[in-house]
Amino acid sequence: MHLFYHPGINLLKSFNAGDIHHQLADVESAHIKVMRLKPGDKVKITDGIGNFADAVIEDANPKKSTVMLTAVTAEPVKPFRLTIAVAPTKNIARYEWFIEKATEIGIDEIIPLYCDHSERERLRVDRLEKVAVSAMKQSLKAWIPIIHEPVSFSDLMLSKNLPDALFMAWIDDNVTLHLKDAYSAGQDAMVLIGPEGDFSKSEVASAKDRGFVPVSLGKSRLRTETAALSACMIVNLLNE
Q1: Would you say 53 and 15 are in contact if contact means Cβ atoms under 8 Å apart?
Q2: Structure confidence at residue 225 as a pLDDT band (50, 70, 90)
Q3: Which of 74, 97, 117 is the last residue of a domain?
């Protein structure tokens, strides 16, 4: 069944309050036309914050389609949260690939991280959000990750809202502790992933002072986006 995104509203609260008629956004309405759906067809709706709704199309207008909710279910809240702060890649397509795959696997927050060796200084968060929406719908998920505005490494180190489990994927012969052994299931975690030139010495020192534990992601030298996705996979698998 086709899944559509209806942001800015809690579907469960809306349904329980008797508000069952909803107009979809322009882009979602256009998809209804492309898919040749018509009034009476059944679809699924998600608000991106954990709720799925069964719905029936009332009006298939390509600019302002309306649907009627018939049932809403809430997905169970995960026992952990995962945030990955990752340096933007020079080739933006590779960064978007990470956003897509991490959304499919499961991630809560993504922080574009500007580092000393970063090769990209500009980033369109709105474009990344569109990639995440598409991936959420394709993988039939009810949660969409929060994609933050880019922050500098130094500003992130000053943040007071970091989770308890802090890790830094660092390419160094002396780092032998693997993320799979450092992380414990159920922990809220943040993993730092550096640019292709890796973190600078001052960044490593700053992260250690802030409580980040240097970890390895294996013996292979991974691209930035591959390393970030590997960290995402490891944390999710350990929570299975």
Answers
A1: yes
A2: very high
A3: 74
95-100 average pLDDT score: 98
The model's pTM is 0.93
**Stretch 52-64: mean pLDDT, rounded?**
94
pLDDT averaged over every residue in the chain: 95
Q: Containing domain of residue 27, as a range?
A: 3-74
Q: Which CATH number fits the domain that encloses residue 95?
A: 3.40.1280.10
Q: Are residues 231 and 130 in the same domain?
A: yes
Which two structure tokens, joined as six digits, stand for 57?
């199309």
Across 14-26, b (16+ Cβ under 10 Å) vs e yields bbeeeebebbbbe
Residue 163, classified by CB atoms within 10 Å of its CB into exposed (0-12), middle (13-18) or buried (19+), is middle
- Cα–Cα nearest to 199, from 86, 39, 83: 86
Q: What's 169-204 look like in SS3?
A: ECCCCCCCCEHHHHCCCCCCEEEEECCCCCCCHHHH
CA dihedral 197, 202, 208, 211 (to 10 degrees): -100
**Averaged over 70-94, what is the pLDDT?**
96
- Tell me: do 88 and 42 sit in the same domain: no
Is residue 88 within 8 Å of residue 150, measured between CB atoms?
yes
Beta strands 51-59 and 42-46 are antiparallel
Each residue's pLDDT tens digit, 1-51 = 789 999 999 999 999 999 999 999 999 999 998 999 999 999 999 999 999
Residues 63 and 101 both lie in one domain: no
